[in-house]
Specification:
Distance between the termini: 96 Å
Helix content: 25-40%
Strand order of the largest sheet: 1-2-6-5-4-3-7
Shape: globular
Low-confidence stretches: 2-25, 236-242
Mean pLDDT: 91
CATH superfamily of the largest domain: Protein tyrosine phosphatase superfamily
CATH topology of the largest domain: Protein-Tyrosine Phosphatase, Chain A
CATH class of the largest domain: Alpha Beta
Radius of gyration: 24 Å
Largest sheet: 7 strands, mixed, barrel
Number of strands: 12
């Protein structure tokens, strides 16, 4: 009888070890080989043409460490696979962001990986598991997502991530920010359109789109942004020397540290000088590109550190219900990785504590002048918003 019990016990142990070993071997062999790649132009990155759900069904999980190799010989090793951009600015990740067509190799707030890797049409990519769950703690801590359902939110304003900005010396009812009033990917455009009409917005700086994209949105069955369309159409009263459209599409990438980003932003600021406000600034979600551009404007207009932080982090309250009181861990990580990092870049002075600077305006003027904006243009731009 004892022999039978020992046999059964050892059989279970052997089976358990075999299963664990098989799972480990399976995990070690997780890979996708020679998938087509697509240059993702809007944010700058490389789509690897495996759909997110399909990639995960193969055994990959958010929080895994992976290696990516391209057929041109370029390799990147031990990078996290996340469902959001939970790495510091300038760091590499593989991301399966909700709404993306495929998994994507990207540099967070950095240069376009297509060019970093020296890729061309016809190159292919492979992804290999490096270590199962290596970055799971970060994934679990930072895992955030929002709904595209208006009924999940308390108000149109919250759903549209919409607000007036009047920090520092910015007068009320002149500057607004939020989600896109034309790109209805996240079902918000109609609500934004109603809000900008209510606030009598006269000029829009679109950080995300091209003219071609905007006109494609207008052809879709779900396009109901009629006030936006009115602003987009030609205004024949204006002189020919002045831009006619009341919507300035800039098609900016995500790399706020690049010269291209700064030059396009300055073009948008210059265009605003030709029109009366109120002004509306947006990208797709009104979160990242809009977040940085509004930090520039608010800092130029002598907003305090607290005012800049509060406005930036309101986006995370609107979309994700993250506040200092309800979720201090996530709140502080986002503030430090985003707001503080952006301000340090703009100030560009390691001798200063970013939260102890009383007035950022001189730093911003220097930053804008390095992007070809003249003293006269900067002064005129300030006067668009200045409280008299």
């Amino acid at each position: 009888m004892k022999k039978i019990k020992y046999f059964i016990t050892f059989s279970f142990i052997f089976l358990f070890v075999f299963i664990i070993s098989s799972c480990a071997n399976k995990n070690e062999n997780l890979k996708i080989i020679d998938y087509d790649i697509i240059h993702e132009l809007e944010f700058g990155g490389v789509y690897i043409t495996d759909e997110i759900e399909s990639f995960n069904e193969k055994g990959f999980s958010y929080g895994d460490s992976v290696n990516v190799e391209f057929t041109n010989g370029y390799k990147v090793k031990d990078i996290p696979y996340f469902n959001g951009y939970y790495v510091d600015a300038g760091e590499t990740l593989l991301v399966g962001y909700p709404g993306y067509a495929y998994i994507k190799l990207s540099l967070n707030y950095g240069d376009d990986y297509w060019f970093i890797a020296g890729l061309k049409e016809g190159d292919k990519a492979s992804v290999y598991l490096n270590q199962k769950g290596k970055y799971k703690d970060i994934q679990d801590t930072m895992n955030i997502s929002y709904y595209d359902d208006r009924l999940k939110y308390d108000s149109d304003i919250e759903f549209a991530n919409y607000r007036m900005v009047n920090n520092g010396k910015i007068k009320p009812n002149i500057l607004f920010r939020g989600a896109s009033p034309c790109d209805n990917k996240h079902q918000r455009a109609m609500y934004v359109d109603s809000l900008i009409e209510n606030d009598k917005v006269n000029y829009i700086v679109d950080l995300a789109d091209t003219k071609e994209k905007i006109e494609a949105y207008m052809q879709k069955d779900d396009f109901k942004s009629y006030y936006f369309k009115k602003l987009y159409e030609r205004n024949t009263v204006l002189l020919s020397a002045i831009p006619h459209e009341k919507v300035m599409p800039l098609a900016m990438n995500m790399n706020y540290k690049s010269d291209e980003f700064r030059l396009k932003m300055v073009d948008g600021f210059r265009s605003m000088l030709n029109f009366n406000g109120p002004y509306y600034i947006h990208c797709q979600e009104g979160k990242d590109r809009t977040g940085f551009v509004l930090i520039v404007i608010e800092a130029l207009m002598s907003s305090t550190y607290k005012e800049i932080v509060d406005d930036y982090m309101l986006t995370y309250k609107n979309y994700y219900k993250i506040t200092q009181e309800t979720d201090p861990l996530r709140y502080n990580i986002i503030k430090e990785r985003n707001v503080d990092t952006m301000l340090r870049f703009l100030v560009n002075d390691d001798t200063k504590k970013i939260d102890e600077i009383n007035d950022y305006s001189e730093y911003i003027k220097k930053y804008l002048k390095a992007g070809s904006m003249t003293d006269e243009e900067i002064e005129a731009f300030i006067n668009l918003f200045k409280n008299n």
